């Protein structure tokens, strides 16, 4: 199976990129285009199978050297509960801290990202890209 991405709503109509392992030059060209699209704010979605159903997940990053999409690997309900719990714990810790410590924390508090990711091979995945300017 060859991976592909359908790029919707471009000036000349829809376009398709193909990641064919047999043609390294096309893979490199497609990888550069995907990297550029992500930088420009395109919504890039790839098809994955979860619990026996095919769904689309948004691509967060693209590894050009390995031809891999990086997607968030999480259960949205579990992640939302964890975010709420973390926010509540942070609010409690801030309320219990002395005022000087609270000010120092807010100035230099690094954002905690517990996001798990998953790599999907571009040479096997089917995807869709939508420009930021795509209207409905």
What does it look like?
The chain has 136 residues and is of the alpha+beta class. It folds into two domains: 1-71 and 116-136, no CATH class; 74-106. The protein has helices at residues 24-39, 76-96, 99-108; strands spanning 3-8, 15-19, 43-50, 53-63, 68-72, 117-121, 126-130. The protein has a seven-stranded mixed sheet with strand order 2-1-7-3-4-5-6, with helices on one face. A hairpin with a 6-residue loop joins strand 1 and strand 2 (15-19). It is elongated.
Regions with pLDDT < 50 over 5+ consecutive residues?
Answer: 108-112
Write down the domain tally. Answer: 2
List how many beta strands DSSP finds: 7
Average pLDDT: 79
Distance between the termini: 32 Å
User: Which strand order spans the largest sheet, edge to edge or round the barrel?
Assistant: 2-1-7-3-4-5-6
Secondary-structure content class: alpha+beta
Helicity, as a percent range? 25-40%
Instruction: Give the C-alpha Rg.
Output: 20 Å
Largest sheet: 7 strands, mixed
| Helix run count | 3
What is the overall shape? elongated
In sequence order, what are the helices and strands, one letter per element? EEHEEEHHEE
In percent, how much strand structure appears in the residues? 25-35%
């Amino acid at each position: 199976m060859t991976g592909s991405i359908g790029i919707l709503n471009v000036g000349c109509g829809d376009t398709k990129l193909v990641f064919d392992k047999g043609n390294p030059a096309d893979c490199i060209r497609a990888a550069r285009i995907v990297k550029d699209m992500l930088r420009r704010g395109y919504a890039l979605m790839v098809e994955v199978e979860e619990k026996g159903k095919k769904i689309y997940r948004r691509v967060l990053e693209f590894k050009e050297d390995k031809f891999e999409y990086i997607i968030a690997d999480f259960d949205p309900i579990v992640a939302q509960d964890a975010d709420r719990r973390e926010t509540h714990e942070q609010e409690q810790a801030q309320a219990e801290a002395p005022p000087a410590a609270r000010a120092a924390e807010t100035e230099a508090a690094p954002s905690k990202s517990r996001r798990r990711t998953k790599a999907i091979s571009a040479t096997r995945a089917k995807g869709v890209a939508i420009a930021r300017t795509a209207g409905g």
